[in-house]
Amino acid sequence: MSKRINADKAPKPVGLYPHARKVGNLLFLSGVGPRTSGSDEFDSGVPGLKLDHNGNFEAFDFEAQVHSVFNNVKAVLEASGSSWDKLVDVTVFLVDMKRDFKTFNRIYAEYFKENQPCRTTVEINSLPTPIAIELKCIATID
């Protein structure tokens, strides 16, 4: 048996999938990006990002996206009955490893001083919205 979970305090998924799925004592989070909750447009609501009328970057703040993606993961975990300290595996997708990895690694260390889940970081060509980072997580749940 599995249970689908959607979190009111996290941004809407960009497709037909739940924020998380509980199976036994494991919680599997769908890809979580940095869009803010309540942003209905999938190409808006990204902290630190401003696009011109052609979709080109006018402003870009990767640090703001990292903090926002962590807040969104926390919102999904808490809505699911889990918590940050119960994360056991984190897969990180970056659209520009060379530009963003060092910054991500520094901020990640601030959030994971106590709990240190397994982690994999990969570079990808793009994500479905104009974001620079997405996380895929697995946590335990009581």
Q: What's the SSE blueprint?
A:
Elements: E1 2-5, E2 20-23, E3 26-29, E4 49-51, E5 57-60, H1 62-79, E6 87-94, H2 97-111, E7 118-123, E8 133-140
Parallel strand pairs: 6-7
Antiparallel strand pairs: 1-2, 2-3, 3-8, 4-5, 6-8
Helix pairs in contact: 1-2
Brief overview, please?
The protein has 2 helices and 8 strands, in the order βββββαβαββ. The chain has helices spanning 62-79, 97-111; strands at 2-5, 20-23, 26-29, 49-51, 57-60, 87-94, 118-123, 133-140. The longest helix has 18 residues, at 62-79.
Overall pLDDT confidence? 92
The total tally of domains equals 1
Shape label = globular
Distance between the termini: 15 Å
Helicity range: 10-25%
Continuous helix count: 2
Instruction: Tell me the CATH topology.
Output: 60s Ribosomal Protein L30, Chain: A
Backbone CA Rg? 15 Å
Structural class: alpha+beta
> Secondary-structure element order, as H and E?
EEEEEHEHEE
- Give the strand content: 25-35%
**CATH class placement:** Alpha Beta
Largest sheet: 6 strands, mixed
CATH architectural label: 2-Layer Sandwich
Q: What are the segments in which pLDDT stays under 50 over at least 5 consecutive residues?
A: none
**Sheet with most strands: strand arrangement:** 1-2-3-8-6-7
CATH superfamily: RutC-like
Number of E-state strands: 8
